[in-house]
Amino acid sequence: YGWERNAGYGTPEHLAALRQHGATTLHRRSFAPVAQLRLL
Predict the structure, then answer these.
(1) How far is CA 5 from CA 1, 10, 11, 19, 29, in A?
(2) Alpha helices in the chain (DSSP H)
(3) For a Cys staple, 2 with which of 8, 13, 22, 39, CB 3.0–4.6 Å?
(4) Tens-place pLDDT, residues 5-25
(5) What count of Cα atoms within 13 Å lies in the side-chain half-sphere of residue 20?
(6) Residues 35-39: what's their mean pLDDT?
(7) What is the pLDDT at residue 31?
(8) Are 13 and 6 in contact, with CB atoms under 8 Å apart?
(9) Among 39, 38, 2, 36, which residue's Cα sits nearest to residue 17?
(10) Residue 23's closest CA among 5, 37, 2, 7?
């Protein structure tokens, strides 16, 4: 997810990891990309 490089922002690297691996317990469920994954 590139946590050490993105400071909590949805960088391309972070968004790609979300798509590939899904959300973790560290992700806010209100973060739009995470919320969208939950709808799939």
Answers:
(1) 9, 11, 9, 18, 21
(2) 3-6, 12-21, 32-39
(3) 13
(4) 877 678 889 889 988 998 888
(5) 7
(6) 76
(7) 80
(8) yes
(9) 2
(10) 37
The token duo for 9 is 């922002």
Asked whether the predicted pLDDT for residue 30 surpasses 70, the reply is yes
- Calculate the alpha carbon distances from 2 to 5, 12, 14, 16, 40 in Å: 5, 10, 6, 10, 24
| Whether the Cβ atoms of residue 10 and residue 31 lie closer than 8 Å to each other | yes
Cα separation, 39 vs 2, in Å, equals 24
Tell me if 40 sits within 8 A of 22, measured CB to CB: no
Amino acid occupying residue 17: A
CB 21 within 8 A of CB 13: no
Token pair for 20: 């590939």
Q: Which two tokens stand for residue 26?
A: 């560290």
